[in-house]
Write a structure and sequence with these properties.
Elements (H helix, E strand, L loop, with lengths): L22 H4 L3 E9 L2 E12 L2 E5 H6 L11 E3 L7 E5 L4 E5 L8 E3 L10 E2 L3 E13 L3 E14 L2 E13 L10 E13 L4 E9 L10 E9 L15 E5 L3 E7 L2 E8 L2 E5 L7 E11 L4 E10 L9 E11 L9 E15 L2 E10 L2 E11 L5 E11 L2 E13 L3 E12 L4 H4 L9 E10 L5 E10 L5 E12 L5 E9 L6 E9 L4 E9 L5 E9 L6 E11 L4 E9 L4 E8 L4 E14 L2 E5 L6 E5 L7 E4 L2 E5 L5 E4 L8 E5 L8 E2 L4 E6 L4 E5 L3 E2 L3 E6 L11 E4 L5 E3 L5 E4 L5 E7 L5 E7 L9 E6 L2
Parallel strand pairs: 1-6, 7-18, 8-46, 40-47, 49-55
Antiparallel strand pairs: 1-2, 2-3, 3-4, 5-6, 9-10, 9-38, 10-11, 11-12, 12-13, 13-14, 14-21, 15-18, 16-17, 16-19, 19-20, 21-22, 22-23, 23-24, 24-25, 25-26, 26-27, 27-28, 28-29, 29-30, 30-31, 31-32, 32-33, 33-34, 34-35, 35-36, 36-37, 37-38, 38-39, 40-43, 41-42, 41-44, 44-46, 45-48, 49-52, 50-51, ...
GO cellular component, one term: cell outer membrane
Protein name: Fimbrial assembly protein
Subcellular location: Cell outer membrane
Length: about 775
């Protein structure tokens, strides 16, 4: 008898079914070695992950090692599925661990460069230099005189000693009463700058440091000052920073005032762009972030940059002590009482720079404090107050100013007011000099795009005797067709009803020439028309000239001069004046340099210079910043007079003119030279004793290709090429070659190297026996 059993299973909705087991639940506990990806970024690390009961655990140290910032409550081991804010995914096929975390958990990234260009240590060599300017003037009424200005410098690693002065001599009818005839000394100074500590030391005749609301004086003494000029790679003023976050690997583009400034790749996490925006004033930055899928996020950030501030923590100062210089440019050695002066600027923050100044002498004490504040993106406010006591009389000075600049317009206001008997070092030794009671100036400019630019200025000065001068100036400058331009200016003294007006049109021509025509009206109502045609001297040298003519009330004015610039000197001559009085003049200026036991002549050297040496090889072309300067002389040297102090310049030689047996290991060098000095830049060249040798056997047949040649004097091995030729470059006066042939056979040959040759000689055929 059979039996049937029915089992009743209650109905369960699909939503109540338990989920299928995950891959982690389906596998037993294990230790996994997985590739770590964070926010789609491959960290390049393989980490150990523990799998227990369907959960993933890993050491917190592995996450911290990649710079991840974890909550303080996290222990040594992290349960990935239980950490708020962190999402994990296990890729079993790729054996990867994919983590997603908030961007602020990831390390900060700084993109860009806060330096203008790489730093190069400044160099100098021992040498001396003479700058000269000879000027001859002959006037119908005043007679003839000769003035010879000169500057002598001696320099080495210990610094630079310089002396400036002028020799003057009158001729003709005025020769007897020329009381200023003879030599007059101006300044004698020793200066040393340390580009490591950014300090400059000075002794001798110098000018004291000052702030915008204080005055400088000429001293004979010593001075210590901060000198940022020795490090042009540094940016001393605060720069804007543009910060953001990237959830996944992205690219970041920075646009400054509509122009692309930089492009960088960023990893997930917060980032800061520190690229230098080369502008001064108000600007607008647009930061565009683009991820791998092309999704973009754009952020606009206004900013304001000003060089009147110092970066936070930077200081700028000068301290001077000595005796006041009297009758400068009138007496050689005349000094007054002893004085001291000091100034300090300190970046308290990136928006506020503190300023202070102090002066002292036997009869004077002065102290002041001020500062510059950036008002967000709305400009800079400056203010200062100082107190003085001179001969028992006290006084105060207060200054207040504001500056704003943008691409469209700029505005500047400055007011300085002195009360009671305010005095400083400029007046204590000069009884005929007194400080003004008040000065005020307002300037503004407006960019009209294709219509040019407008400018306006108002100046109000109240002198010590209560006399007042107020001036108003208006200008308009507009480009015309091509490179021509139109300029209009009008100014008047308030209180006077008449305007002085000038209108000028400048038309450039080919061959570096330009024509300008102008009409003028003075405050007295006199009209005058001018026409001028000039041709500038070409940069490499040549001839330039200037022709001018003016017609109006009174005698007509005529002017003509010619300039001829050579590599060694600049010559000028000209004539100007009217039919009533005419002046003729001539000028010669240049420099003489002594370095490396040689003398070089050049145009005026105002700063630093370099003497390039090519080891005695002549007619080697030399380039400075990719521009041909000239060729080395018979001694293998060339003076490059255009270097700027502390600038990292590029100097090159062209080895194509060198003999074939001369080797040039380096054809390009970058070097910076200390201010006011020179440097001997050597390009080492090596003459190689080389030759191509033709080897044959006793039957006059070239030795087989691939035979090994050993030069016994140098130990250098070579291989025989086609037609039995072999090249060797370390030969001696007498040479022995041992050749290994196929089958173990060998032979030997001897020869002498020709004594003098600028080419690689061909020797042979030589019989190898």
């Amino acid at each position: 008898m059979g039996c049937c059993c029915l089992v009743f299973i209650p109905r369960v909705d699909a939503g109540e079914l338990p989920p299928p087991p995950t891959s982690l639940e389906a596998m037993p506990d294990a230790q996994l070695y997985l590739q770590l990806l964070v926010n789609q970024m491959d960290t390049g690390k393989v980490i150990v992950v523990e799998q227990r009961a369907g959960q993933l655990y890993m050491p917190a140290a592995d996450l911290q090692a990649i710079g991840m910032k974890l909550p303080a409550s996290v222990s040594a081991e992290v349960a990935l599925d239980q950490l708020p804010g962190l999402h994990s995914e296990y890729d079993s096929q790729g054996q990867r661990l994919l983590l997603s975390v908030p961007p602020d958990w990831l390390p900060a990234q700084f993109l860009g460069n806060r330096k203008a260009y790489p730093r190069t240590e400044a160099m100098t060599s021992f040498g001396a230099m003479l700058n000269y300017d000879l000027y001859l003037n002959d006037t119908d009424e005043a007679g003839t005189y000769l003035a010879a200005w000169n500057e002598v410098r001696v320099f080495d690693t210990w610094g630079t000693v310089s002396n400036t002065g002028q020799y003057r001599r009158s001729f003709g009818a005025n020769a007897g009463n020329g009381l200023d005839n003879g030599y007059l000394r101006y300044d004698t100074t020793w200066r040393y700058s340390d580009d490591e500590s950014l300090l400059t030391y000075e002794a001798g005749d110098l000018v004291s440091g000052a702030l915008p609301w204080s005055n400088s004086v000429r001293l004979g003494g010593v001075q210590l000052s901060r000198d940022f000029g020795v490090r042009p790679d540094l940016v001393t003023y605060p720069l804007p920073q543009f910060a953001g976050e990237a959830a996944v690997p992205s690219s970041v583009d920075l646009f400054i005032n509509g122009f692309k400034s930089s492009s960088d790749n960023v990893q997930p996490g917060p980032y800061t762009l520190t690229n230098i925006p080369f502008i001064n004033g108000a600007g607008e930055a647009v930061v565009v972030t683009t991820d791998a899928l092309g999704r973009q996020v754009s952020t606009t950030v206004p900013f304001y940059v000003t060089s009147s501030l110092l970066q936070k923590g930077l200081s700028d100062f000068s301290v001077a002590a000595g005796t006041l210089r009297r009758d400068y440019a009138q007496q050689d050695f005349r000094y007054g009482q002893g004085v001291t002066s000091g100034s300090l600027r300190y970046g308290v923050s990136d928006v506020f720079t503190l300023e202070s100044h102090a002066e002292a002498s036997n009869d004077l004490t002065l102290g002041g404090v001020g500062g510059n504040v950036r008002l967000g993106s709305f400009g800079v406010l400056n203010s200062a107050v100082s107190q003085s006591r001179f001969d028992g009389r006290e006084g105060q000075q207060v200054s207040l100013g504001y500056q704003y600049s943008s691409q469209r317009y700029s505005l500047s206001y400055q007011r300085l007011e002195r009360h009671a008997q305010y005095a400083d070092l400029t007046v204590i030794d000069s009884p005929y000099i007194s400080l003004s009671k008040r000065s005020e100036q307002v300037t503004a400019s407006l960019n009209l795009d294709s219509w040019g630019s407008l400018g306006a200025g108002y100046f109000d000065i109240r002198a010590a005797d209560d006399s007042r001068t107020r001036l108003l100036n208006l200008t308009w400058n507009r480009p015309l067709w091509g490179n021509s331009s139109f300029y209009l200016s009008a100014n008047r003294e308030i209180g006077d009803s008449n305007w002085a007006v000038q209108a000028q049109v400048v038309i450039p021509f080919d061959l570096d020439g330009s024509l300008s025509m102008s009409m003028e009206r003075s405050t007295s109502g006199e009209n005058r028309q001018r026409v001028n045609f000039s041709r500038a001297v070409p940069g490499p040298g040549g001839v330039g000239y200037n022709l001018g003519y003016a017609h109006g009330q009174g005698p007509d004015y005529r002017q003509a001069d010619l300039t001829w610039r050579l590599q060694s000197v600049q010559l000028q001559a000209g004539v100007y004046g009217s039919s009533d009085a005419e002046t003729r003049w001539a000028d010669a200026s240049g420099s003489l340099v002594w370095m490396d036991k040689h003398v070089f002549a050049a145009n005026r050297i105002n700063d630093a210079f370099v003497v390039v040496s090519t080891d005695g090889y002549a007619k080697v072309p030399v380039r400075y910043e990719n521009q041909l300067v000239g060729e080395t002389d018979q001694s293998g040297r060339l003076l490059v007079p255009w270097s700027s102090g502390y600038y990292r310049g590029k100097y090159e030689i062209d080895p194509l003119n060198l003999p074939a047996n001369v080797l040039s290991p380096s054809v390009e060098q970058r070097v910076a030279v200390r201010r006011g000095s020179g440097y001997l830049l050597e390009f080492p060249l090596t003459r190689i004793n080389a030759a191509s040798i033709e080897l044959v056997d006793e039957h006059n047949t070239p030795l087989p290709l691939g035979a090994t040649v050993l030069h016994e004097q140098s130990g250098v091995a070579a291989v025989v090429g086609w037609d039995g030729l072999v090249y060797l470059d370390r030969l001696a006066a007498q040479n022995t070659l041992r050749v290994t042939l196929g089958g173990g056979a060998s032979c030997q040959v001897q020869f002498a190297l020709p004594e003098s040759s600028e080419q690689v000689p061909m020797i042979g055929p030589l019989v190898c026996r």
